[in-house]
Structure formats: C-alpha cells, structure tokens
Amino acid sequence: MMRRSLPNLQRKIPPSATITIVGGKADASEMKVSWRDVDTFAETQGFSCFETSSKTGVNVDIIVEDILETVFERRFATEDDQEIFSDQPVYATTVLTSNNEEPAKVNGFCWIPLISYFRRKETN
C-alpha cells in the first residue's frame, strides 16, 4: 500500500517536505503489516517511522517531539543550511484572490494557503 501511494503523495507536497510514517494499533496482538517491512521501507526512503497506540499512548509524545524538532530545525536553519534547499520551489507568502478581496496569507507551518471561506458582502 505504501509503495503504491507514495508517488501520488509526493506529487502533492513540496519536494522539501519531510514524510513520517506512523503505524497505529501498536497494542494489537495481530498486525496487518509487518513492522520490520515498514521500518525497512522507511529507512530506504529516508523517512522517520513510529509505531503508536492511541489506546495506550505509546510513542505519541515521541512523534510530537520529532515533528517539532523538524519544524524548528527548518524554521531556524542557518544560511549554510538554506543552500541545501535553494533548488527547491519557493511558495508565495500571499495568495491572490478576486479583485475585491485582500490577498490571503499563507500558513507558516503548512504549504497550503489559508483561504477565507466567507466572502464579504459586496456594497452597492
């Protein structure tokens, strides 16, 4: 399943995005997918992977820490580190909307722009 859906996912996210595989139901006695296979796949692709359980809370805190570390590392990267990402596409900080609306601001933690769902009432 992961191997088939990965190309589709990679077409929809920025090339510099970090992918983390999270497997749930760590508390279950029978697994539908071998964790060894998942770990091997993640390692070959350069992804992080975690096995979790929402029932017992196993590894949930570790995932949050890992994601926050990645966000802070990228957010506060030095100029030398920025060269690594210099060949990646740059996304605009605003999104143009219709003529009467102000530009929508882009969410700093997500590459998808925030677009208002409510339109202003037009005045006559």
UniProtKB/TrEMBL annotation:
InterPro entries: P-loop_NTPase (IPR027417), Small_GTPase (IPR001806). It comes from the Eukaryota. GO terms for molecular function: GTP binding; GTPase activity. This is Uncharacterized protein. The lineage of its organism: Eukaryota, Metazoa, Ecdysozoa, Nematoda, Chromadorea. The gene is Cni-C52B11.5.
